[in-house]
């Protein structure tokens, strides 16, 4: 994270004696990245965070197999047609992925078990509903339009307030704001489309009593369920630069040009081998002869995974794309507006339309995305041919 936070009680000096009311010592836990060479936080536990009493291997859920996008084709998946069983962790339906990132969709109204992803950071976008995100760092209340970014190794659970729909972006490494938005010291710069004030992190500790508490742990070797002697939510305070946070897509400030700007102006986060972009309501391009709609383009180094979450998609009129749709436009295929869309938007501008209302989350990957069984089960088979109608 780009700035320091302190929550709850911490001693004045790091790694010094910090005693409980009964005179015993609180147990320190350093959560750090890149072998003590990058961001970290120091957490103070009532009990030893190392005390486990049981470990058992867990058989992975079915439906986790990926297959190549062959024959190479643009795809349209309708998440509206998916129904998931389980919670917002166990009920994730794998849509696409590669060695860098896995993209899944989940719908649930039940709390998840405690979970730790030790393979990489997660960025979970809440499409609909409200959720309470609980972790060793505290609580984040999140709702529609929120990205919740979770550092590797954070023990957490999801508690929906009713039914919630989410897109889960699971990285093989760390997810951060783009470097070009930050100073050399980590502060957001003035040209960045969001800043520290837009980020919400836990503001107070979450202390829960409990014994022999199971935690599902994902590692590169598979899944394990560890049973902790005491509840992991026993942190009385922490400080540092590494912690979960939420950012709402409505707080993204679009960058506008006279003529159409390419997707990097929408970039919100970056991860190993991929970027996350937010397409938000914004003024249309304002050159008097602008074509205020995406031009045909071929990202020769990227696959484009676009999740349509709100508004009106004038560039995609006639394609079948609607709220809840996901399009996949792979490298090797040139894509762009549907036939007639350019003329329709120019006509709308001539009649006084000055803004676009679309809201979408895009993940661009720099290695090809393979397809999950979940995506193939809700595919619109006619999408690839809609430009030729």
UniProtKB/TrEMBL annotation:
Pfam families xrefs: HgmA_C, HgmA_N
Superkingdom of the source species: Bacteria
Homogentisate 1,2-dioxygenase N-terminal domain residues: 22-248
Similarity comment text for this entry: Belongs to the homogentisate dioxygenase family.
Keyword Oxidoreductase listed: yes
Ranges of residues in domain Homogentisate 1,2-dioxygenase C-terminal: 289-387
Protein name: Homogentisate 1,2-dioxygenase
Keywords on record: Dioxygenase, Iron, Metal-binding, Oxidoreductase
Keyword Iron included in the entry's annotation: yes
The protein's required cofactors: Fe cation
